[in-house]
Structure formats: C-alpha cells, structure tokens
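User: My collaborator sent over this chain with a note saying "see what the structure looks like." That's all I know about it. Can you take a look?
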Amino acid sequence: MEKNGIKPANGRLGILIVGNGAVATTFMTGVLLTRKGLAKPIGSMTQYDKIRVGKGEQKKYLKYSEIVPMASLDDCVFGCWDVYPQNAYQSAVYAEVLQQKDIDPVREELEQIVPMKAAFDHNYAKRLSGDNVKDCATRWEMVEALKKDIRDFKQQNGCARIVVLWAASTEIYVPVDEKVHYRLADLEAAMRADDREHIAPSMCYAYAALTEGAPFVMGAPNTTVDIPAIWELAEREQLPIAGKDFKTGQTLVKSGFAPIISTRCLGLDGWFSTNILGNRDGLVLDEPQNFHTKEVSKLSTLETILKADDQPDLYTDYYHKVRINYYPPRGDNKESWDNIDIVGWLGYPMQVKINFLCRDSILAAPVCLDLCLLIDLAARAGRYGTQRFLSFFLKSPMHDYTVGEEAVNNLYQQYTMLKNALREMGGYEADEELD
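Assistant: Without extra context I'll predict from the sequence alone. Here is the result:
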C-alpha cells in the first residue's frame, strides 16, 4: 500500500555495481555482515540519522525508515561488472581494506558475486589491464550488452527493482560537447556511430540502466550524468539520477570547513590540498588525463562556497590547488593535508592546517549504501531527473549549468536539502529551523 504516494519497498532490490574493487567489496561485505548482526553500519545516514519532523508539541525525531518506506538491507542483492574476473571474496582480500576476520564470515555470499564482463575501453583508464571485458565492436553494442546483463540479473535473482551504481575508476576527462551531449538524439547517434572520443563507457552504463528502468548513480567524477542528453533520458524514462563523485575525505572536510570561513566573514588567500593513496584509484589517477577529471571535481567545491561576487573584499583572487599522489605503501589508507591561508581583522594573516588520516573505502561504503537506498526511494516516490537532495553525498553535485545554475556545495545547506526532501516525501512540512 502506498504511503504519501510512495510505492512500498516490497521485494528484492538489486544493486548492480560498476566495479568490484576496494569500495564495492567494502560496501557489499559491510551490508552482508550487518544483516547477520556481525557488524554495525557506522557512517550510514539511512541507518543512523534522525530527522526532526513537526514543531512545538508535535516535534519528534525519526529515523529515515520511520518517515518514508525504505528498502531493508535484508532485501538487497548484489551484482557487479569488473575488468578483473575475481569474485567479490577474492577482490575483498586483495584490496586489503578489511581484515580477514571481517571477510570470512560472509565468504560464501561474496564468492557467489562473480563480476560480469565489463564494458571497457583501455584508452579511458590506461593503468588498468584486466581481460574480463566485453567483446563489443561499437559503443552501441556495449549498450545492448549491458541492457541484457541488467535484464538477466533482475530475472535470475527475482528482483523487483534495480539500482545501478558506478564505483569504478575515474575515466579520462570528457569535455561537454554541445553537438553530442546536449540532445538525446545526438548522443544516441554518436553511440551508434561508435564515437569513442565523446562517448565514454560510463555513458553506456548510464544509458543502459535508465532504458532498463534502473536509477543510476555516478560515484566518480566522470562527465557521464553531467550532460543534458542524459537529463533528457532520465526525464523521458521518469527515473532519478544522481552524481557525481562520492564525497568522502578531503572534500567532505572542505565542504564543512569552508562555511566556517564564510559564516565568520573571514578572508581567504589560498587553500592548498594534497593527498597520498596507494589503491587502484590512486594508480588510475596517476595518469594525468584521469587526474584532470578528479581535479575539476575537487576544485569546484570551494568556488561555490567562497564567492567573490558575494564578498569581493574576502574572496577575490584566492589561490586553490589540489594534488593527488600515488603512493603504493599506503594502500587504501589515504592521507590528506590542507593548508588554509585565511585573513582576519585589518588584513592580518592566519593559517589553518588539517591532516586527515582516513580510510578511503571505509568512508565511501556507507555513502554507497545511502545513495542506493535513497535513489530507490526517489524512484518509488515518482521523483525523476537530477536528485539535488543527494548532493550531501557527492563531491561535485549535478546542476543545470545550461541556465547558469550553481551547485550547492555547502555541507549544511546540502543537509537541509536532504532533510527537507525526506520530510516532504513523508508528508511533513519542509523547514530550515536548526535542530
């Protein structure tokens, strides 16, 4: 029975993940452990966060599942694509994120998750060399093969619904081209013509997902969902999309700390960010063309929070630099440093230093869960197109730049958007009152 116009979360939710690496296996292992009662899904908003609904005597704090019908972890079933053929257990062990003692209790379930052959173009990720790859002559053949994968997985696993999540590597940067990326008809023509310059493999995944009735989430900084043609497709199919790039470590800190500077009306001279990591993501990003895609994503956060147009005395001509360095000994244990040169009373300089020793996949896994469950909710609620309320989880949130819209990157504004979307879907009044 529908609640506030939202279809119930009945049946199995198939979560198809592009990529079977550190992030994907940490996500899947964590869900499997949690539903066995062997671990806690710490960091997941959908599992822990409580939102105030109502005011005065009507005020109460409820978990998401008490406001809207959320899919249960028990109903989630996983599948994936990857260029390497190892099953999820083998990949989880190889990733060296989780300890063996935390993988073995769900070994049998992980071993059953065997990656389908990936739709892959080596030119888009030159540092990867796996051979579990589809033999597709054209981009359109990629689309057709992926559509069949989705249909087969849904049927074989008895899924009521499917969500497709990109948790694979960052592709080389694909600039938006109006002749190809603005109209759906032009995008389809380019796919049929095998335009490999303008059609990234990730675009084939997004197109296949949406035409098979599955919401799509872009967890990397790829251009994939940042093009009007895919927005048009999502509108046509009346399905939600979200992207791009999981907001986990340094950018999470940046989107939370930059508002302190702006709220306090302090000035900024410069913000230097650097990272070291040694996982597969770091290997791919060691390629300059792939790093540029990530750089664009990470740079955009600050520029939409500290704006010269709003405060020319404070934010004109500050220097913002981002660096990522591949350092194999560190593995998935990423470390980031931020040096922030701020300006105070009478122009006197001060500095802030932030050193974040984080675990990339440990931070990303709950974000994957929340995005999958929330975009499934959005689909059942009849929401379609770009889901701006999911910006909280994303490094470079989608926005309609064709009409001059700016992305919202302020973490606290994003959280308000998330809460209000859930309030509205649950039949409560939206507001911005601080809790």
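A starting point for your reply to your collaborator: Residues 43 and 366 are 6 Å apart (CA to CA).
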